[in-house]
Amino acid sequence: PNGKKAKNKLNRRFMSNRKYQKMVCDITELKAHDGRKVYLEIIKDLATNQLLTWSISQHPNLQFALDPLQQLLKQLSHTGYQLTLHTDQGWHYQHRAWR
Fold first, then answer.
1. Alpha carbon separation from 80 to 8, 20, 34, 77 (Å, rounded)
2. CA 99 to CA 81: how far, in whole Å?
3. Do β-strands 37-45 and 51-57 pair in parallel, antiparallel, or remain unpaired?
4. Which of 8, 22, 44, 58 has a 20 to 30 A CA-CA distance from 79?
């Protein structure tokens, strides 16, 4: 079942000149050398193109998706402007715990 979907606030306006103002997050499925599936989730800052946090797992479960978000929340400082973290509408990002 679908969770709550967020509004698209970026509307393809990906440029920013302020760190943490606009960030993006996604999960990618990769194939390891031995044929197993491996999942990578990154959170990237659009102003600096810096990878802020990331996680790798053999299982794309909810805790895997939450780990980079929890790491990001620990490192964020007060900016004085609105912060936006843009994701696709995958089930991880619709989950109550992630929102």
1. 22, 11, 47, 9
2. 20
3. antiparallel
4. 8
Residue 17: CB atoms within 10 Å: 9
pLDDT in tens, 52-95: 999 999 999 999 999 999 999 999 888 888 788 878 778 887 88
Whole-prediction pTM: 0.80
List of long-range contacts for 42-50, beta carbons under 8 Å, 24+ apart: 42/68, 43/68, 43/69, 43/72, 43/85, 45/19, 45/20, 46/14, 46/15, 46/16, 46/21, 46/22, 47/16, 47/17, 47/18, 47/19, 47/20, 47/21, 47/22, 48/19, 50/19
Q: From residue 84, give the alpha-carbon distance in Å to each of 3, 13, 22, 65, 81.
A: 19, 12, 5, 17, 10
Among the listed residues 82, 73, 74, 88, the one whose alpha carbon sits nearest the alpha carbon of residue 28: 88
Supply the DSSP symbol for 5: P
